[in-house]
Amino acid sequence: MNEWPKIELEDTVGDVLRKTMRGHRLDLQALERATNIATPSLESWLAERAFPNADEAARLAAALGMDARRFQQRAAGAWYPGEVATPRVRRHAQRPHPSNGYIAYSSAEGGSAALVDPAGDPEVLLAQLRERRIDLEYILITHKHDDHCDAAGAVATAYPDARIVMHEIDAPAIGALAKRALPVRKGERLAFGATAIASLPTPGHTDGSSCFLIDDLLFTGDTLFAGSVGGCFGDRFGYADLLASIRRELFTLPDDTAVFPGHGPPTRVGWERNENPFFLDKESAR
Predict the structure, then answer these.
(1) Given pLDDT bands bounded at 50, 70 and 90, which one contains residue 20?
(2) 214: which residues sit within 8 A by CB, 6+ positions away?
């Protein structure tokens, strides 16, 4: 079962607006011209002092390439993902970071474990691993930002036989450990108990951002959140690449695939395909 309480969505309406504006390279003046909505109103929504009504949300969605119905739902605070529970996944604390890391087991009975995104106070994280007497087989790192990998060295020292998996573009972030990291390769499957771990390159948030799929469990880092997507901080890949990688690698998975993101609550592929405002209804149809 999940062992964390209800978590707020990672992105507010203001966050969604900022990300789409940045993605389309629109400043407030350009957005005012595109929507005929005065800049003071746009500023108040970005600052969370007020929220757009249905008509205003529709005009914003049209200008920013979002789905109007879905964005209106978010603006009204009317959407939150349903319950996602599995005995094969435990969230691990990443304090002081506000990010999610996970321990994934190879079976419902336990078995081998994979640690997704080792970050935060290493002593807190290692205490959790030791308390559960985990047979750590893999350290899976979704991308290079500190709040997802800054405890990699401590974990690798404590579990020297655990194999590190990280995209080679982002791997320099873990220093000398990069030399022992297995690179992320699309289509490659790593043996994990009686199952396997599939690596999915999803560039956009960073150039080396990746997701990991274990049966029907998907770990998305900062590529896909419940009701949102990650910001773009790469040099080679950007907003269009991020959305394209989600459509290509993630939205082609079965609807009931559980999604465990790097921030915010868990969700499912089907819910995101049908309700995430960054994607249009017509392009999400299967």
Answers:
(1) very high
(2) 88, 104, 106, 114, 192, 195, 196, 197, 198
Domain range summary for the chain, segments of one domain joined by +:
13-75, 89-284
Cα of 212 vs its chain's centroid, Å: 11
pTM over 0.85: yes
Domain 13-75 matches domain 89-284 at the CATH topology level: no
Find the range with the poorest average confidence among 28-32, 92-96, 222-226. Answer: 92-96
Taking residues 216-225, report their average pLDDT. 98
Res 285 pLDDT > 50:
no
Joined tokens for residue 216: 């029907």
**Mode of pairing for the β-strands spanning 189-192 and 195-201:** antiparallel
The string of DSSP codes covering 205-253 is: SSTT-EEEEETTEEEEETSEETTEE-----SS--HHHHHHHIIIIITTS
Q: Specify the fold of 13-75.
A: 434 Repressor (Amino-terminal Domain) (1.10.260)
Q: Which residue has the tokens 């008509």?
A: 55
Percent of all residues in the chain with a pLDDT value above 90, rounded to a whole number: 82
**What single-letter amino acid sits at 176?**
A
Is the pLDDT confidence value at 3 over 80? Answer: no
Helix/strand/coil for 168: coil
Q: Are 136 and 128 in contact (CB under 8 A)?
A: no
Q: pLDDT at residue 4 above 80? A: no
The CATH number fitting domain 89-284, selected from 3.40.50.300, 3.60.15.10, 1.20.1530.20, 3.90.1310.10: 3.60.15.10
- The residue with tokens 């150039």 is 207
Average pLDDT over residues 131-155: 95
**Angstrom distance (rounded) from CA 182 to CA 185:** 9
| Beta-carbon count within 10 A of 258 CB | 18
